[in-house]
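Reading a protein record of the kind used here takes only a little practice. The integers have meaning only within a learned vocabulary of local backbone shapes. With that in mind, consider the following protein and its fold in token form:
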Amino acid sequence: MNPQLVFADHNYGELISNMMQFYIYDFSIYVDRDLDEHGLYKPYPNLAEYWKGDNDKSAYVIKEDEKCIGFILVKKLLHEISTHTIAEFFIMKRYRRKGIGKNVALQIFELYKGQWEVFQMENNLPAQKFWVDVINEFTSGHFSERFENGRRIQNFTS
């Protein structure tokens, strides 16, 4: 599998917003989320900021054989040094466990050189395993890790 990252401008806004419903559904086992009276999850806050082009937030659609199979949101954290993080990462269940997520994560780390801080919720053990394995491979084990405010956090340089 050779997933492609497609930079998402405003033309992809509705697509990502729609896929976000599936992402929130998957994530709802880790956080307290319920459907509204229309059977939808509350919209992701400030999603449109990801395609304004200000370089602090970027969105990508993940495609496999021209089919949209997920998305990734990357943003800069407000630290003393410029640090990137994965705000959200989603691969449709049908395409999981095929190496696509790992491939996409490695592409993003190469695309955004510099400092990284990636975090997972403490109760989301599958995400922790995924990110620790990917970051360990990418950095050859050269990363730091800590637990803080209910999150497992990895720091490294790409």
In short: The chain has a mean pLDDT of 93. The longest strand covers residues 67-77. Helices lie at 13-27, 100-111, 125-139.
